[in-house]
Design a protein that fits this description.
The chain is α/β, with parallel strands linked by helices. The protein contains 5 helices and 8 strands, in the order E-H-E-H-E-H-E-E-E-H-E-H-E. It is 33% helix and 16% strand. A hairpin with a 5-residue loop joins strand 5 and strand 6. The relative contact order is 0.11.
Amino acid sequence: MPHATHDAPVILEAAINGGTTPEKNPRVPRTHAEITHDALRCFALGAAIVHAHNASYALTAQAAADDYLAAWREVLNAKPDALWYPTLSAGPGMAAMLAHLELIQRELPLRLAGWDPGSTNLGGPGPDGLPAGVIYGVSYDDVKYAFAFCERLKLGASLGIYEPGSLRTTLAYARAGKLPRGTLVKLYFGGDYGIFATRPGVSFGLPPTLRA
């Protein structure tokens, strides 16, 4: 396997909160002021991209847009060229989950849309130690809609690859010349705790190893 050279380009992306709660980590930025503060600090320290979630996954469309705008107006006022993107909102299907991005873009510069081109199971060990959780479902029709959405709004797609099948879907679009300009393909590896679990034993995708 070739080693990276000293002049290989590196993109630093700071994902500053995700689904983490203050109960799990008292330093996680969740309020608008905290998100603004931490985002600006990340840019000052060399981050090229900052990704943040809003206060609640339940917010949709205009409510989700307003929540993001409350934090990111101040960031963009201080750093007009900041490269950032929100997460998906709740909703039945990709059109609903992306709707707030178009509303945000009407007011603030937005050049990336973050979403995941495939489905996966997310959870942790149940009381019996066996896997329990939810299906994070993204269909082929959802993927097609999301890529078309990015093309229409001239957004790069920041793609989270949780499972090998999601990468194969992305490669099919690449072979067809259908990836939007500025697309980032990011491989997510599943640690012992997965994403939501509070104890180890159930995860997703491939483990964080060199071979994987």
